[in-house]
Design goal:
Layout: H1 23-42, H2 55-71, H3 78-100, E1 105-106, E2 117-118, H4 122-135
Antiparallel strand pairs: 1-2
Helix pairs in contact: 1-2, 1-4, 2-3
Amino acid sequence: MPRSTGSAAAPALSPWDLERCPATPLAQRYADLQAFVTWLKAQDVLAPTCWYAHGWLVHRLAALQAWRARAYAPGAHPRDAAEWWAVGLASLQRDWEPCLAHEGRHPPPDAPWDDPIPIPEFGAFVQAAARERAEHPPPARRTRPPRRTLP
């Protein structure tokens, strides 16, 4: 008997997958990350003020935020939380250290040799990112084509 080739529901996006996040929830995801960075600072973690302007840093923070949620979820082992601090956060701190010197100023992307200019404030940056995402939606997640059955 042939297998059904009906289309399955699209898989839910992972909280850390901002590449495929549609424009509508993108602003909320950035707001969640801003709250996470604020929480990190309250834990005496020095975070770059321009974190949101670095795509790689936004993606790492989103993954770290999701990891923390699982590490501190009910039933999680204490080792999960210890690993989150020692492996996840510590490596991110090493990697973002050069960004700490930016102090909210970056060279213009089209003229990297020019003097640094202030980056847009968070709200304006997020609005621009959401507008860009609305104009250029992420590609649909590729799924495996349905398996053909032989007669």
